[in-house]
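sorry for the late reply, my laptop died twice this morning and i had to redo everyting from scratch. anyway the thing you sent over, i finally got around to it. pasting the sequence first so we're on the same page, its 176 residues, then the predicted structure underneath. double check i copied it right bc i was rushing
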Amino acid sequence: MASRHPVHVTLRVLDDVWNLRSRRCFRVIEAALFRGSNRLGLRLTHYSVQGNHLHLIVEARDTQALSRGTQGLSVRIARSLNRLMGRRGKVFADRFHSHVLRTPREARNAIHYVLGNARIHARRQGRSTSAHPDPYAAGPIDGGASSALRSVVPPRTWLLRVGWRVRSDGGPAGPA
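ok and here's the structure:
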């Protein structure tokens, strides 16, 4: 893995962990993401919290930084959730799943998938979807920084700043 390639990471929790999209769980998860968003060579640029899993788009210095940084985020989140739920022990079901984003198309698809994940799950379950942005997701859709997105950091890689907007023929990808 090269540092110029962002990574889509998925973290799944155990069945007995509360719904992560509840306000009380999300509050502690967001705080943990904020504290760990730029540590150990890992930078969190986008995320989505679902009922039983999290999607993250991260930039990592190298494979070791990806592993250590993701593990560090997982530990922060697990400790916070365990404290909230009055429990001890494992929170995450297994090791994280990661997919290196190597092309503008992969980056674009990952950003849209992560930020729109709640809509995807709602449609699959036959529920109606909101036109409003998901309150349990964050990330700069324009590739820039936003003061409202305090739990993520601005992307540094070309793919997350500019590249995801470029079509395969070199033209602009159009509106987000």
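Strands lie at 7-12, 38-39, 42-49, 53-60, 97-100, 137-138.
thats about all i looked at so far, will dig more tmrw
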